[in-house]
Amino acid sequence: MNSNVEFTKLMRMARDHMENNGFSPTTVSSYMRTWRSMYNFGISKGITEYSAKLAEQYMLEKYHVSIGETQLNGEPLTSYMQQKSRAIQTLTEFKLHGFVPKIRHGGIAVDWPDEYEEICKKYLKEQKSNGLAEQSLRKHEIDLFRFVSFLHSRNVSLKRIEAVNIYDYFKTITHYSKPSLATIRSILCRSLRFFYQQGATPKDLSDFVPKIHYHAKAKIDKIWSEEEIERMLSSIDRANPMGKRDYAIMAIAANLGLRTSDIIALSIDNFDWNHGCIKLVQLKTSEPLTLPIPEQIGKAVIDYWMNGRPKTNASELFVEHVLPYQKLSKGIIYHMFNKYYESSGITAPDTKQHGLHSLRHSLASRLLEKDIPVNVISNILGHVDSNSAKSYLQIDIEKLRQCSLEVPDYE
Length: 411
Prior knowledge:
Largest sheet: 3 strands, antiparallel
Number of helices: 16
CATH architecture of the largest domain: Orthogonal Bundle
Radius of gyration: 24 Å
Shape: globular
Structural class: mainly alpha
Distance between the termini: 23 Å
CATH topology of the largest domain: DNA polymerase, domain 1
C-alpha cells in the first residue's frame, strides 16, 4: 500500500480491515486507543505520518520496551503491554502489506490456512514431544502462523515456496526488535528444515532464511554501580510501611539477584531463620534454590513483617498497601524501581535498563569483578545450565558489533 498515507487515514483503513475480517469490537477499540495515543505522541514530536521508527520511539520512551519483545526486565510482559505491542505490530504490518493475520490469543488455537494446517500442527507436535516449554511452543505457533499466513496471502503453497518468498516476508518484519527477529529466524529455520524432511517442500530452504547479527549486550546497558544502588536504597523512606516493604524488595534483588516473579511469590515460610537462609522453588525453572540471608535483608524483612505489613490473609510476604492487601503485581514492582531511581537523583542514558532484573545483572557483574567462579555465580542466580550465566557475565565486554539484519537481494 501507499507508504505515505496520512496517519489518521491509515488508522481508519486498518480499523475497517480488522472489522471486515472478524476482529472483535473490543480488540478493534483497544487497538484504536493505542494508535490514537501513538498519533498524539507523533504530533508532539512534529510527526504526522506513521512509521516503524516512530512506533519504536513511542514504545521505548513510554514503556522502555522494544516492539516485538516478549519480556521486560527478564519477566514476561503484562497483558496490557502485550496488547500495546500487538496493536502497534498490527498497524505496521497493515501499512507494509495491507494484511493482518488474525491470531486468537489466550491459548486458543490459531486459524491455520487449510493447505498449511496439517504440516504445521505436525511440526508443533514434534516440538512438544522434544520437551519445548508451553510458552516457547506458543511462540513457535504464532511466529509460524504469521509466516504461513503471509505465504497464503500471496497464494504461495509449500510446494511452490522459493527463497524470494522468505526474503519478502522478512522485509515486512524488519521493524521488529533484533531479539524477536533472531527468535523468528530460529523458528523458521527449524520449521522449514522439518517441512523438507517431511517431503512438504521440494528443497531445504532453511539456509535461505536471512541471518540476524544480534548481540544482546550491545542493546542496553544493564549494570548499576554499587554507588547507584546504594543511592536508590537510601532514597527509600523506611519510616513508613510501604517504604519498609520496598526497601526489603530492592535489597533482596540487589544482594541475592532473585527474579521478580520469585520475590513477589516469597512467603515468610521461605525464610529459615535457624539456618540463616532462604529456601524456595524458582517459578521459571521449577528448581529449588537456597541462598544465605545477609544481615541487611534479614533486618529489612523482619522490620516489614513486624512493623509494616498490613493484616491480610494473603500468603505472600509482600503485598499491596491498599485493600484488599493482595499479592503484588510485576507492574507495581517495575514502577516501584522507577520511583526510587528518580528520587535518588541518578542520571542515566534513556537506554539504561530499569527494573529489578537489572539489579540481577548488576549482582552478576559485581561477583565477576571479585573473581567469583562462573559456576558459583550461576548457582547464586539459580540457573539450571551454568552456560546461562554467560548472558550476564559478558556485560562488561565492550560492545562488539551493531545489530544488523541481512536481507539480501534475490534475483
